[in-house]
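Q: Okay, next protein. This is GLPGLI family protein from Nonlabens marinus S1-08. I've checked the sequence twice, so it should be correct. Can you predict the 3D structure?
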Amino acid sequence: MKNIFLMVALVAAGSWSTAQELYGEATYFSKGSIDKSFLEGNRDITPDQRKRIEDNLKKASEKTFILKFNRNESIWQQEVALAAPGQGGGWGNFMGSSMGGDKYKNITTNTFTEQRDMMGKTFLIKDDLPQLDWQITGESRKIGNYTAVKATAVKKNDDLDMSAFRRRRDEDTKKKEEDGTMKLTDMFEKDDTTTVTAWFTPEIPVQHGPAEYGGLPGLILELNTNGTTMLCTKIVLNPEKRDKIQAETKGEEIKLEEYNATFTKKMEEMSERFRGGRGGRGRN
């Protein structure tokens, strides 16, 4: 079954290559699971406050992205709505700019480039694309007008992949929270690996997909990992107007692992200052 779908993909790729230079734009709706455990049992939060918090968490977990691609390159960009007056700054803005910007991928060189801002400094992450050992199952279904084939892989979680973290609920964590000695790293635990499920279509024979994913014989239309689903809701192929696909060039070049370590250190420093500003609550 696996070889059949690979053959279909190769045949489709051959027919496309003789027809025209492929360019496409795919729109994805991303939705992540929400951990509301910190709201449970909190008597300081009124029902109205809880509803507002839950609504804000829901909005933060739902995003729209555009994947622009040709045969060998792609760029993954978030569609950002204009913020209402008084919004768009603060912690959410800091996390957004620090955790990810436009992601350029080149499957010929097997590399990606991503610009991120951290505390007023611009970094340019340049690194190799993650290589997943995809297992094509042969299971298929329709997504929109396209036939999609299921594939799975086990992926090592990135150190800053927030969807891989879970809030700790053990007694030791509760004690540290009460006496004011808890560090940011004490609050959460992270799974080392996760299973990724992708649905790709050989009818669009490019090895691209949402975020950092790709490497299958067809465009990934749906991807599920760590409680997050990214679903393609619209595809436009070979429009008259085509945007140029290119990597950002501004910023201090850095590897992903080094950037993650720098970000984690900054977060710990901010956590230390926050605890100090509270006057060491709970200490004698």
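A: Here is a summary of the prediction. The CA atoms of residues 66 and 156 lie 25 Å apart. Residues 13-19, 82-97, 279-284 have pLDDT under 50 and may be disordered.
Q: Noted. On to the next one.
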